[in-house]
Amino acid sequence: MSDTRHTKVLIIGSGPAGYTAGVYASRAMLEPILVQGIEPGGQLTTTTEVENYPGFTEVQGPDLMIKMQEHAQAMGCEIIGDIITSLDTTQRPFVAKGDSGKTYTADAVILATGARAKWLGLESEDKFKGFGVSACATCDGFFYRGQEIVVIGGGNTAVEEALFLTNFASKVTLVHRRDELRAEKILQDRLMKNEKIETLWFHELEEVYGSDSPLGVEGIKVKHTTTGEIRDIPAKGVFVAIGHAPASELVADVLETHNGGYIKVTPGTTETSIPGIFAAGDLTDHKYRQAVTSAGMGCMAALDAERFLATQE
């Protein structure tokens, strides 16, 4: 069997953007190949209940991604479990190398590698991910109605999430390791005026603790950054809001980026700075970061790729 595969459209990434691109590219008879990457299904595979995806009152994140994968396959998209380690954009067709040793050549490429939440790296944080520890307030805030919850961070993301979470929580404690926030002034003003939010200065997260059966958060231990004093804060939810990092390593040196590495696209399209390379989903989106917006961009990318290929013919 040849170690080189050619396709009209190569889709790199397998979250909502990648799978939706696979559906639309298949329906356009482009016979796409989708390479799943290091985390098949993307960030939704690390969540539990999803209640904000149209058509599903409630669905488990991993189950939703399996349904999307099956849909793309049913339309004719070939899905390969491989990791793209390099992409040569200087020649046509484009050439991608896989960790498996396979080479993929493509007339057009759709990048849908997503973004990753930044984590603190604590063992206890990892233990409760998806069971009380989250990095997405708009995804999971709804599950903490009437509960006390904690937000970790001091930038725009942290303040926006704390404010959003007051729609559900009885109390939100914002834990920040300094005595001033990095967030925009208007957000800081809203935070300080909100009676549901308490700000805890000069503290950092030391440990998340809770029950093992069922797995769930009961509180956190925080440490004062100067005195080292440890204190307990009861909480049912912990939101780590220290930012997101786009998974743009593959193309950060060749494509135009903005806002800390997100791929820049022409407004209203998924076109990047190189013709024939398209980007969709959280890889381009530092603002919304929702499954439904990612899926919409995946649709756009497939349609943009179809039009691009038609002009090349």
UniProtKB/TrEMBL annotation:
Enzyme kind, highest EC tier: oxidoreductase
A GO molecular function held by the record: thioredoxin-disulfide reductase (NADPH) activity
Quaternary structure and interacting proteins, as annotated: Homodimer.
EC number: 1.8.1.9
Record field: catalytic activity: [thioredoxin]-dithiol + NADP(+) = [thioredoxin]-disulfide + NADPH + H(+)
UniProt keyword list: Disulfide bond, FAD, Flavoprotein, NADP, Oxidoreductase, Redox-active center
Cofactor: FAD
GO cellular component terms attached to this protein's record: cytoplasm
Record-stated family: Belongs to the class-II pyridine nucleotide-disulfide oxidoreductase family.
Any one biological process term the GO annotation gives: removal of superoxide radicals
Keyword Cytoplasm: no
Free-text cofactor note: Binds 1 FAD per subunit.
Pfam families on file: Pyr_redox_2
Name of this chain's protein: Thioredoxin reductase
Domain FAD/NAD(P)-binding, residue spans: 8-298
Oxidoreductase among keywords: yes
Source domain of life: Bacteria
